[in-house]
């Protein structure tokens, strides 16, 4: 949007007391939004990735999740402040464009789109792998193709169906974690099962102490922990389709602390009390290891089903968000115009369709290199996801400064402790990026980032030349483009 468009749109929203309309149907209610927020914070990073983190840091991984969880809360409250100022589906891409300039909005929109395309490929790949737990005769590429097509079909029906599917995906994850916590508490307090004699809270410090690998080992897990929380910001993309964004979104954001406390910290405390941290290995779900130690062989199958739903949930969210991001870019003159088209159900089918076509490339990777597909595409996800968080925090700082000067209205949902909390979160993300550079396994993400930045720089220069020829400011659309509802 141009600054004129933002001012005009905001004036109209103030008068109406509602969020700006973008042509979407507001089909996501409180129940769906709450579960999308929960689902965004619980993914394969917890069910699988925690195994590697535990082996690297021991029980101190609990502290790492707590600290990162606090940073995530600061990020989400910064996003909440912006959402109550102007709730739009473009979310942080829109805010980057308004407060940091058209180029940042361009970079953010395309980077977040690529993040979800890459994540969608990794999650569909992972889901296809999980199916082989029950039937190894199913080719990995075939399962990936079926999952991709099925989720695409769901995303073509209505946003309400998407929300309902995410609700049930999240319910599976929540039920599994709560079940694990209750069973673990029973083992620790009542002493039943094969693990009853050794299960104890003393396992948190009895095997080499709380920091068995030292502070350095804990620090090296931070990028793994940050990856586990990627997608928690997805709730911001739903703003344009929430039934009552100014009521629903703050509720969802304010649940972040207890979600992290229960589903991450609570679950890890119980698991590491039931089973010594020395048992866990990279690539093995800590939930599976805990169930096996307890003596519940069916637990492995249950956890495999839960992880399968977590992967499909993430892929489903990816399809949802990519279409909205491409449409936001197109509405602002930073993407092909045909992405602005909506279906009769108010869905950005062109953007979603092109994104799914890119994800289908991941099916080809599965076909060619089934054993290496996951590692080929996962390296870029962390750094591109954290870019969205950086833009959220920087935009909130600029917005708060303008609001304090009286240039913009104050948000109804201020981030507590800002600007200090936002500055702290930015510094923490910078430290994690440095740690990624130290870790040889994570360093490839930093190698990929400059290549992507060069591609975006060339693309933006092309847009500047096109807009200069048409007498427009770089990366902007005609004044009515941002609110135009184009059906097709």
Automatic annotation (TrEMBL):
Entry-linked InterPro entries: AA-permease/SLC12A_dom, Amino_acid_permease_CS
Native organism: Streptomyces mooreae
One Pfam match: AA_permease
KW Amino-acid biosynthesis (keyword) present: no
Domain Amino acid permease/ SLC12A, residue spans: 33-468
Record region (Disordered): 1-24
Transmembrane segments: 35-54, 60-79, 99-121, 141-162, 174-195, 215-239, 260-280, 300-320, 347-367, 373-397, 418-438, 444-463
Topological category with respect to the lipid bilayer: Multi-pass membrane protein
Chief location of this protein within or outside the cell: membrane
Subcellular location: Cell membrane
Family membership: Belongs to the amino acid-polyamine-organocation (APC) superfamily. Amino acid transporter (AAT) (TC 2.A.3.1) family.
Keywords of this entry: Amino-acid transport, Cell membrane, Membrane, Transmembrane, Transmembrane helix, Transport
Name the UniProt record assigns to this protein: Amino acid permease
The UniProt record lists the keyword Transport: yes
């Amino acid at each position: 949007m141009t600054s004129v468009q933002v001012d005009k749109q905001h004036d109209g929203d103030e008068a109406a007391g509602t969020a700006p309309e973008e042509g979407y149907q507001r089909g996501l209610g409180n129940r769906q939004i709450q579960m999308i927020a929960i689902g965004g914070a619980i993914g394969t990073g917890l069910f699988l990735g925690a195994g590697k983190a535990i082996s690297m840091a021991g029980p101190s991984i609990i502290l790492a999740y707590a600290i990162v969880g606090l940073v995530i809360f600061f990020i989400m409250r910064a996003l909440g402040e912006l959402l109550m100022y102007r709730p739009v589906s473009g979310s942080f891409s829109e805010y980057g464009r308004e407060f940091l300039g058209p180029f940042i909005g361009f970079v953010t929109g395309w980077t977040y789109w690529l993040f979800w395309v890459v994540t969608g490929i990794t999650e569909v790949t992972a889901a296809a792998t999980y199916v082989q737990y029950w039937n190894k005769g199913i080719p990995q590429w075939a399962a990936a193709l079926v999952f991709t097509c099925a989720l695409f079909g769901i995303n073509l029906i209505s946003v309400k169906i998407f929300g309902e599917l995410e609700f049930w995906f999240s319910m599976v994850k929540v039920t599994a974690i709560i079940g694990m916590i209750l069973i673990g508490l029973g083992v620790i307090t009542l002493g039943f099962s094969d693990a009853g004699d050794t299960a104890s809270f003393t396992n948190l410090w009895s095997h080499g102490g709380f920091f068995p690998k030292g502070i350095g080992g804990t620090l090296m897990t931070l990028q793994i922990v940050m990856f586990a929380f990627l997608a928690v910001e997805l709730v911001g993309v739903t703003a344009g389709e929430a039934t009552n964004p100014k009521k629903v979104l703050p509720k969802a954001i304010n649940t972040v602390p207890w979600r992290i406390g229960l589903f991450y910290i609570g679950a890890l405390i119980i698991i590491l009390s039931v089973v010594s941290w020395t048992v866990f290995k990279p690539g093995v779900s800590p939930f599976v290891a805990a169930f096996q130690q307890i003596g519940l062989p069916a637990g492995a199958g249950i956890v495999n089903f839960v992880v399968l739903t977590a992967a499909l949930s993430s892929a489903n969210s990816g399809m949802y968000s990519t279409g909205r991001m491409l449409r936001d870019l197109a509405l602002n003159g930073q993407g092909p115009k045909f992405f602005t088209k909506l279906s009769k159900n108010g869905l950005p089918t062109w953007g979603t369709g092109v994104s799914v076509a890119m994800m289908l490339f991941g099916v080809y990777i599965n076909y060619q290199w089934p054993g290496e597909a996951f590692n080929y595409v996962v390296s870029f996800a962390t750094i591109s996801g954290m870019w969205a968080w950086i833009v959220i925090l920087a935009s909130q700082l600029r917005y708060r400064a303008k609001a304090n000067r009286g240039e913009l209205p104050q948000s109804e949902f201020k981030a507590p402790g800002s600007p200090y909390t936002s500055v702290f979160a930015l510094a923490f993300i910078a430290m994690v990026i440095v740690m990624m550079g130290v870790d040889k396994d994570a360093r490839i993400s930093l190698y990929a980032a400059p290549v992507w930045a060069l591609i975006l720089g060339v693309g933006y220069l092309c847009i500047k030349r096109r807009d200069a020829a048409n007498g427009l400011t770089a990366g902007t659309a005609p004044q009515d483009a941002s609110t135009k509802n184009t059906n097709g």
